[in-house]
Specification:
Elements (H helix, E strand, L loop, with lengths): L12 E2 L2 E2 L18 E2 L2 E11 L9 E10 L4 E7 L5 E7 L2 E7 L4 E6 L13 E8 L2 E6 L2 E5 L15 E3 L18 E11 L2 E4 L7 E6 L3 E2 L4
Antiparallel strand pairs: 1-2, 3-17, 4-13, 4-14, 4-16, 5-10, 5-14, 6-7, 6-13, 7-8, 8-9, 10-11, 11-12, 14-15
Pfam families: Laminin_G_2
Protein name: LAMA1 protein
């Protein structure tokens, strides 16, 4: 076995001597344990998860679904870019959810604006669906749908070739469809990307780079 255990361990003794886990000699990717825990992945607001090292190709169609829970009104959710301008991005800005797409001709944005600034950032679970179908894009939050017009109807493919960054991205990485640099703080679960008949559920424990992200451990409430 070469991977770590998604669990809490306490009161460990060796040869009748209790180990002091409060002041370890070294520590890596170990978070505190929570009395109440939910399914999901905890982002502590300092980093990101990087998926698909070889690069994710959005091209003409993609459907993204995820659930999020946060109290922050600014944060990166998902970004996939290219070295050029082609990219897609999902973010929370001033409590609104923005879905940006650039197929090469220019950025277009679908914006979901809730009634209250904090109504999506209330620490409760919210369901998000972002859909790109050629030049059309839409955003559905908790069943409420937003569509946007695209003047660039002949530009239909986002030719991305970079990893999927979730909850943030490294300082040296370019993201053409994100305006925020704020790392996500809260919990995410059920990240699914669908292209045609191919549906992929992403397991954050399989990310090739995780910083400030704790798979399989989502505290029941913010402390």
């Amino acid at each position: 076995v070469t991977h770590s255990i998604p669990a809490c361990i306490g009161s460990m003794t060796i040869n009748s001597k209790q180990l002091d886990n409060k002041s370890p000699v070294s520590i890596f990717a170990v978070n505190k344990c929570y009395e109440t825990v939910q399914d999901g992945t905890f982002f502590d607001g300092s980093g990101f998860a990087a998926l698909v090292r070889e690069g994710y190709k959005v091209r003409s169609d993609v459907n993204i679904t995820l659930e999020f829970r946060t109290t922050a009104v600014h944060s990166v959710l998902v970004g996939v870019s290219s070295a050029k301008v082609d990219a897609i991005g999902l973010e929370i800005v001033h409590g609104k959810v923005l879905f940006h797409v650039n197929n090469g001709a220019g950025r277009i944005t679908a914006t979901y604006e809730p009634r209250g600034t904090n109504s999506l950032c209330d620490g409760k679970w919210h369901k998000l669906q972002a859909n790109k179908s050629k030049h059309r894009i839409s955003l559905i939050i908790d069943g409420n749908s937003v569509h946007t017009d695209n003047p660039y109807i002949h530009s239909t493919s986002a030719d991305t070739n970079n990893p999927i960054y979730v909850g943030g991205y490294p300082a040296d990485v370019k993201q053409n469809c994100l305006t925020s640099k704020s790392s996500f703080r809260g919990c995410l679960r059920n990240l699914v990307l669908t292209k045609g008949q191919h549906t992929e559920l992403f397991d954050f424990s399989r990310a090739f780079d995780l910083r400030g992200v704790f798979p399989h451990s989502c505290p029941g409430a913010e402390h």
